[in-house]
Amino acid sequence: MDILLSVLAVLFIIIGIIGCIVPILPGVALAYGGLLCCYFCSFSQITTTAVWVYLILTIIVSIADYILPAYMTKLSGGSKAGERGATAGLIVGMVMGSIVGAIIGPFLGAIAGELIADPSDTKRAFKSGMGSFFSFIVGTGIKVILSFIMLLAVFKDIYPVVKDWVVNLF
Question: Which pLDDT tens digit goes with each residue over 45-77?
Fold first, then answer.
């Protein structure tokens, strides 16, 4: 059972890291699932406290990923219309299910929202869209970093056991 859980742990985390970039997959949640697989191995040194801390971080990062586009749009000088446009663009982009949709959706949504509110201020609209795009970069970066930290925790936990399995095999 430990072998299966170890393999699943690594697979979930690798797919999770890919999912941090590809919008269809819940990246950080999959990486956390990999950490849990490793935690339930009989040899695991991962503490219950670490599992809870990673769960809380996973929840915070997942929620922030949905809030960031509207927040960064506002931070970059966008209005409520730009925030709403970025949120609508995020939803449309996710429904499209592609990485292009997840990046361009909030960007175009923020621009559209600003232009609907004030068609004459294209500079503000573009700046608002750039804030939304920057949020994608920041959000993706945070998700990838957290997933890599979980990957390192899993590798640290399973490396001695895998090493022993390989040595005993040959």
Answer: 899 999 999 999 999 998 888 787 777 777 777
For the question of whether the overall pTM of this predicted structure is more than 0.85, the answer is no
Buried b (16+ CB within 10 A) or exposed e, 53-71: ebeebbeebbeebeebbbb
Whether the predicted pLDDT of 9 surpasses 90: yes
101 has pLDDT over 80: no
Round the CA-based radius of gyration of the chain to a whole number and report it: 20
* Cβ(133)–Cβ(107) below 8 Å: yes
